[in-house]
Design brief:
single chain; mainly alpha; 2 domains; two-stranded antiparallel ribbon; 4 helices; 39% helix; 9% strand; globular
Length: 132
């Protein structure tokens, strides 16, 4: 992986609206996705709520904003790196076993206890001391 995120340009997600300001994009996304979510509340999307089904939700909700809505991303998503960093966890995302991660995610939806056990050696299981 080159480290470049094809979904980001100038620090802002590439979007159909041509917005280059993070704040403006956030507001437009909030407005447009609210409409899409309300539409889904009236006309639910049938399916099994599995990995094949969930991208269609993403497409339904975000397609007015992003051309790539509903497609599985092929790069690390900066949001998850930042979320883990902010929580104080060190995760080596490249070391995750994709099949086990999918299995664990499915198990989590069915309330299986401790679904991530053995999922990866990437998860250090240790929090680092907060900084600042």
């Amino acid at each position: 992986m080159s480290g470049e995120d094809p979904y980001v340009a100038g620090g802002v997600l590439v979007n159909k609206l041509g917005i280059t300001s993070a704040a403006a994009l956030s507001q437009a996304e909030a407005d447009l996705t609210l409409v899409a979510i309300l539409r889904l509340s009236v006309h639910p999307l049938p399916g099994d709520y599995d990995l094949e089904h969930l991208p269609e939700f993403h497409r339904q909700i975000f397609s007015a904003v992003y051309a790539w809505a509903g497609r599985i991303r092929t790069v690390d998503i900066a949001f998850f790196r930042q979320l883990a960093r902010d929580a104080g966890w060190r995760i080596a995302w490249r070391d995750l076993d994709a099949a086990k991660n999918n299995q664990a995610s499915s198990a989590r939806f069915t309330a299986t206890p401790n679904p991530w056990s053995g999922c990866s050696t990437a998860w250090s299981g240790r929090r680092r001391a907060p900084t600042g």
